[in-house]
Amino acid sequence: MFDKIAGRALVPVGVVVTGFLAVCFVLLYAGIKDIVIRDAAGQANNLAGIVLKSTRYAMMNSDRTLNNTIIKNISEQKGVEHVRIFNKKGIVAFSSRPNEVNRQVDKKAEGCVICHEKAVPVASVGAMQKARTFRNAAGTDVLAITAPIYNEPECYEAACHFHSASQQVLGTLDIGLSREATLGALNSIRMQMIFFSVLTLILTVAGVITLLKIIVLVPLQKLQRFTEKSEHNSNVTQPTDLPYELDKIAKSYYFIRTKLGEIDKSAL
Amino acid sequence: MEQAGANQVEAVEQAACKPLASLRQELLDEMASLRHFSNRGLLALSLFLVVSTLAWRDFWFLPRPEKIVASLGAPPSPQTISIVLVLYTFSAIILSLSRLMAGLKHASSFCHVGYTGVFYLFYYFAQGLQDNYWAVFGAGFTVLSLESYRIWTWSQQQLAKKEQQLAYLDRTGRLPVKDDEDEDDDSY
Predict the structure, then answer these.
(1) To which H or E segment does residue B123 belong?
(2) Residue A22 distance to chain B (closest CA, Å)
(3) DSSP for B79-95?
(4) Quick check: B149 and A20 CB within 8 A?
(5) Which of A140, A142, A27, A2 minimizes the C-alpha distance to B131?
(6) Number of CB pairs, chain A paired with chain B, less than 8 A apart
(7) Tell me: the pLDDT tens digits for A153-212?
(8) Does B4 reside within a domain?
(9) What is the pLDDT of residues A215-243, one digit of tens each?
(10) Are B82 and A11 within 8 A, CB to CB?
(11) Within a domain: B172
(12) Could you tell me which of A116, B7, B34, B42 has the fewest CB atoms within 10 Å of its CB?
């Protein structure tokens, strides 16, 4: 394989084009994946904000029925896997799954540990830190957002005086969204990138093979046939349409061959 | 020109003074050394595969990235590392192709194992190794394959020359006069 010109020329081209394309496409895919996941987390954060604003009035009035109805309606939306609100002690106060209500959640559990890692819990976290991904019992990939419910003047100045002003966080909202659409989109992007990279690779190798054949291999075969024929027949004419370098070799060979013929004739 | 011609004649005369067996042995030693050198690229590629296996297993023997970040500070973002990786791959390929074209000896395989190893480590510290593992693997494999091919091709060319010299020596009892191209090859 490496003895022939085609093999020697194609191996480096094939390795370089395949390798560099693979590196660029993997990095491009990693970049796109990062953007898509950040975007999904940002949208989930916005949704968590909408849920908090929606339940605000019911919370201010301590209306459990209204809160439960809002959470139930939101959880019925396609793509929403779970919605729950924890109180300060980590007990589920409201949930889209009624069997979870009044249950204690471990503060070391995923999603809680981000703020409760140290003795004094963290009061505010970034958008990406609020997000976590996992596979639920139903086998669905879930992106969950844990959004703190902050104590605001309307809460601690209300007539009921239930919360003191020193309390920073009153509870947390935990909302889980299916990642099916996001993962589907990423899979589609990946397949398209693989398809286009294979096409590019085939086109590059085909282009190199074609050019190599036209520019180098065909003229070389002409030259090879000429030298082989002229070994037995001194009247063979030199090939035409050769590239400059090969034409010079053919002329030199033709000249030597003619001289040898003349010497042979004169010797006879 | 005259000086170069005089040097060539002097070299031929010196070579002629050496005993035939000694010249033959020198050529055979050089050929053995070239055969050994031609495997250098493959050895570097094997070492790279070992490093890649360690990276694939998430460098289990190293401290967790959080600990390293706490003591050394934040690493560059995965995006920045990716840009540097593309630049490195591009430059390394161009450099290797230039050396292939110029027919230079240059044994640079093992340093590429180091560079790619550092990329693995940076991604590990930036917690982006899982997403970018195949990019570093592809980059390392491409560069080292090209380097292996370049080193192997150069060694095969030199071996063919040495075999010709050996045949000439056996036929005539002396070494052939070196042309300019041979002088260039010997200087590396």
Answers:
(1) helix B109-125
(2) 6
(3) HHHHHHHHHHHHHHHHH
(4) no
(5) A27
(6) 63
(7) 776 666 665 667 677 778 888 888 999 989 999 999 999 999 998 898 889 888 888 888
(8) no
(9) 888 888 888 888 888 877 767 777 777 88
(10) no
(11) yes
(12) B7
The pLDDT of residue B140 = 95
Contact status, residue A47 vs residue A74, Cβ threshold 8 Å = no
pLDDT of residue A129: 66
Over residues B7-32, the mean pLDDT reads 72
- The residue-averaged pLDDT of A16-34 equals 90
Domains of chain A: 15-178 (3.30.450.20), 186-267 (no CATH)
Angle at B60 between CA B74 and CA B57, to 5 degrees: 105
- The DSSP code for A134 is E
Q: How far is B186 from chain A (nearest CA, A)?
A: 24
Alpha-carbon distance of B152 to B42, in angstroms, equals 9
Q: Measured between CB atoms, does A33 come within 8 Å of chain B?
A: yes
Interface of B with A (CB under 8 A): 78-79, 82, 85-86, 89-90, 93, 97, 100, 128, 131-132, 134-135, 138-139, 141-143, 145-146, 149, 153, 156
Which residue range(s) make up the domain with B117?
21-186
Q: Are B163 and B31 in contact (CB under 8 A)?
A: yes
Q: Please give the Cα distance from B85 to B116 (Å, whole number).
A: 9
Chain B residues with CB under 8 Å of A8 CB are 153
**ipTM, 2 decimals?**
0.73
Sheet containing strand A169-178, strands side by side: A92-95, A80-87, A169-178, A141-150, A131-135
Q: Kindly report the nearest CA distance between residue B137 and chain A, in angstroms.
A: 8
Q: How many domains does chain B have?
A: 1
Which residue of chain A has the CA closest to B141?
A19
The angle that helices A64-75 and A5-60 make with each other, rounded to 10 degrees, is 160
